Prior knowledge:
By secondary structure, the chain is of the alpha/beta class. It has helices at 3-12, 24-34, 37-46, 64-69, 83-92, 130-142, 223-232; strands at 54-58, 75-80, 97-100, 115-120, 144-154, 165-172, 176-186, 192-203, 208-219, 237-241, 247-252.
Amino acid sequence: MDLSAVVDDVNENPHRRRTFYEYPELYEFYHSRALDREAQVGLLERFLPEGATRVLEFGCGTGPLLARIEDDYEEVFGVDVNESMIAVAERRVSKATLRRADFTEWSAAADGRTFDIAVLMGGLLHLTDDRSVEAFAANAYDSLREGGVFVTFFQPFSEDVENGTVDVQTVESERYTVERHSTSALTSREGHYTTTYAFDIVDRKRDESARMGTVFDGRFHDPDALRETFSAAGFETAETIDREGPTLLHAVK
């Protein structure tokens, strides 16, 4: 399915409930233009332990990071719960190993593997309850060798987080334009939020368009709570690093 097929599918039944993640082609089209993929490679390389040869990515999606690094390490492994995303990743990579699994329920140790470094490129926002965060921290710990490193980034929750935001972002190619309208609001004192999206997709070649609405429930995370959770999972050190953009979480087994 390319974006023209997404347009057709939406227009065939425009009122059914949808998620952004059921259309990996739309996901890839949008994120490949809206996100800095090379910065993700840089984040991985920044925290590589000495002599690292085995890399695990939790929440690998359509595999953009795996494809960029698979020639640089002896073993590259990606995990994602979404079957459609994994299918796209399988077509994209040539050496990396892929596994469909929920990373709150799966660890590499279950497969008899350990890795030098594990990364999660922003997926903490999907973990909306404390038990899921605790389960993931334990699985990340079990997936690493002694001295192994885990790193992720997240939007921190604080009193400075604005309740009620509106945003518009546009990405395009020669043929397509995708305009994403979003409205977000906090829904709890623990950092939960709901975002309503409207994606306007224009196919200039066919002179057709579609509007798709989705709703996402996520969570901003408290840095202190994350440090405590990863320390409780067994990590020898767990630190958060403030910087321009999302905050980093860096933990060493």
